[in-house]
Amino acid sequence: MKKYAIAIHAGAETLKPGELDKKKEEAYRQGLADALKEGYDVLGKGGSALDAVEAAVNSMERNPMFNAGRGASLTQRGETEFDAAIMDGNTLRVGAVGGVRYVQHPISLAKVILQKCKHCLLVGTGAEEFALANNLPLKGPEYFVTPEKREAWLDKQQEKAGKKAMPGSMTDTVGAVALDINGNLAAATSTGGLTNQMKGRVGDTPIIGGGTFANNEVCAVSCTGEGEAIMRGVLAHEVYAMMKYADNSLQSATEKAIQLHADKLKGDRGILSMDTTGKAAFGFNTGFMKRGYQAADEEPFVALWESEKLKKPAKLKEMEK
Ligand code: ASP
Question: Where is this site: Cleavage (predicted)?
Answer without folding.
Answer: 172-173
